[in-house]
3-alpha,7-alpha, 12-alpha-trihydroxy-5-beta-cholest-24-enoyl-CoA hydratase (Sphingopyxis bauzanensis), 285 residues
Amino acid sequence: MPIQYPAVLKETSSGGRKAWGANDAILYALGLGMASDPLDRNELPFVHEVDQKVMPTLAAVLSRGLGVTVAQLGFDYRYSVHGEQAILWHRPIPPQGEITGEGRVVAVYDKGDKGAVCVTETSLRDGATGDLLATVRVTSFARADGHCGAPSEGAPDPHKVPDRAPDLSLRYATRPDLALIYRLSGDMNPLHIDPDAARRAGFDRPILHGLCTYGIACRAVIEGFAGWDPERLASLAARFSAPVFPGDALVIDLWRDGDVISFEAQVPDRGVTVLKNGRAELRGT
């Protein structure tokens, strides 16, 4: 069933719970390529249960299955693309715990023959205290659901990165097997492991998870401007513009303007930009 507008705006989710432990947070960090040098004392705390630090973008993994479902939204998953990801952190994500999730549909925009844009949001709360930990927002592009009757205008303008040379550029080599590790955090889509599934989707080999690239960008912001303190990150948003293949070398370009960090990610060897319109905000500066 296609998107039913405006009825889809009333779709919600609640009551879901998810628990995780220190090993889950460590596996997630390894899936981002953290501590590839096991003697790096800046990255070691993210993969060691002693005085453990947690990559904030773990919130994206934890939100999986707690928000409004594709079935509720009504669009065909086969023709949908993960367009944008944003997280707002209200409190640090602990190394272990249990959360509840509450999901809602924020907006739908009709792009006619091109499809429809659907924005959903999931609020993650501490399962014991009810405190709000993070708000996770996902923008999906449903290519088969244009002409659904939603407004065509009104979407926020994308963040513009500064028109000057980057203040900092960081390079990360992704391992050829990185998608095999990252998928163990919960995204088992065969597109990321099965060569035949990748070819059917139009790729010559499996691609890296978009949220893995997003997590690597988070790593760059924390390394470059937060002194390796993940609790200083208040928000992170970006648009996915091209796939990354495991083994690609990523270059993250970053610009700082006060508490706001703009960023883009590129694969220079292939001449493509894979993350655009990146915006992070720091606290405590």
Summary: The beta strands are 12-20, 80-89, 97-110, 116-126, 132-142, 168-173, 233-240, 249-257, 260-267, 272-282. The radius of gyration is 18 Å. The first strand starts at residue 12 and ends at 20. The chain is about 15% helix and 35% strand.
